[in-house]
Amino acid sequence: MARNETISKLKIFENKCKKEVPDGLFDEEFYTIKDFCDIGNGMVSGLDKAFQIDVEKLNEYEKKYLIKVIKANSLDSFTHNGTTDYFLIQEAKIKNEADFIQKCPNLYGFLKAYKEKLNNRYQYNREIKYWEWSFLRNYNLFSKNEPRIFVPCKERISNKNHFRFAFIEANIYPTQDVTAIFPKKETKESIYYILALLNSKFVFDWLRFNGVVKGNIVEFSEKPIASIPYRKIDFKNINEKSAHDNIVRYSKKYIKNRDSREPEKIAIEFNKIFNI
Questions:
Q1: Long-range own/partner contacts, residues 246-251 (CB < 8 A, 24 or more apart)
Q2: Phi/psi at 19 (nearest 5 deg)?
Q3: pLDDT greater at residue 83 or residue 93
Q4: Which of 89, 202, 218, 238 is the most buried (most CB within 10 A)?
Q5: 83, 180: one domain
Q6: pLDDT tens digits, residue range 108-151?
Q7: Is 188 in the same domain as 79?
């Protein structure tokens, strides 16, 4: 698509995302993702390979510390390619090294090879035990028992025309190369609608021109994601509600069966919403 045509469509996109004011007119500002979603950058282990563990080698007590993790290379548009088992022991759960060895002998045996590197991690102004993660950034947000959207924190777009916003089931955590998005409680639009919007051509092109882009790499930390325009649905409008519900249905089907016809159907529904 020619640059001028793209910019023209992005202006329509922004206009359709504008905030309403009390008298029924529209404000100059548009709604953004931060108005409807909570956003968090992933947790920092400090040495990922030291916390990836074979579940079969753990005792029942050690298994209590297991979490499911998805890293950036496992993400795709709408979906993901599986999880990895990590262990996560929060501060104060284990009193000292002797307590760790006694309660978690298999984890201790696994970590011994990484002990020196783990002790040399950045300490974030506190003493971090070698069996602990460096920084449990946004842990409370990620621990919500609800689905979420993950995206790589950086994405090269020189050879692609889409991003990798993926639907992720509840109780799966991101590491530092992933950013997570959670619809707020008061948000009326479905997470599947938000997922489809973020994976749309509108958002791809908008971020190409307005996002944080360096050398064909788009940054997806909290601030750039927060600035993405958001099309709020008027659920009293039959046509808008119908388009929203269709997008939700097609997104669910695509996540389940990866049928290439579903994204095309989603694009048609968004064109209806944006009158393009």
A1: 247/192, 247/193, 247/196, 248/190, 248/192, 248/193, 248/196, 250/196, 251/78, 251/167, 251/192, 251/193, 251/195, 251/196
A2: -75, 145
A3: 83
A4: 202
A5: no
A6: 999 999 999 999 998 888 889 999 999 999 999 999 999 999 99
A7: no
